[in-house]
Amino acid sequence: MDKNEEKIVRDFSARSKDDQQAFIDNTWCDTCQKENLGLHTPIEYEHAGVIYIEGKCNCCDKTVVTEFTEEDF
Ligand SMILES: [Zn+2]
After folding, report:
1. Total number of domains constituting the chain
2. In angstroms, what is the span from residue 61 Cα to ligand 1's centroid?
3. What are the pLDDT digits (tens) for 17-62?
4. Which domain holds residue 15?
5. Which of 25, 29, 42, 43, CA to CA, is 20 to 30 A from 17?
6. pLDDT category of residue 71 using cuts at 50, 70 and 90
7. 60 CA to middle of ligand 1, Å?
8. How far is the CA of 22 from the centre of ligand 1 (A)?
9. Phi and psi of 56, rounded to 5°?
């Protein structure tokens, strides 16, 4: 089994409040087709070497995933 296929849950709450707020505010919802609606109940995980922030859209409550790119570090 390929280890990279596993999701590794990370501690989103370990980030600074500013970082957390930025992820919560800067979203793209595929269901609403709108950006920056915001999300709630965020979790952070790593999958295949990429970090993702996942939460629920404030508007439609569907899952919203943000890919965490290297440039944001
Ligand atoms: Zn939405």
Report:
1. 1
2. 6
3. 999 999 999 999 999 999 999 999 999 999 988 999 999 999 999 9
4. 3-72
5. 29
6. low
7. 4
8. 17
9. -110, 135
Ligand 1 centroid to Cα of residue 44, in Å, is: 19
Q: 21 CA to middle of ligand 1, Å?
A: 18
Radius of gyration of the chain (CA): 12
The model carries a pTM of 0.81
Q: DSSP per residue over 5-69, as a string?
A: GSEEEE-GGGS-HHHHHHHHHS-EETTTTEE---EEEEEEEEETTEEEEEEEETTT--EEEEEE-
- State in Å: Cα 2 to ligand 1 middle: 33
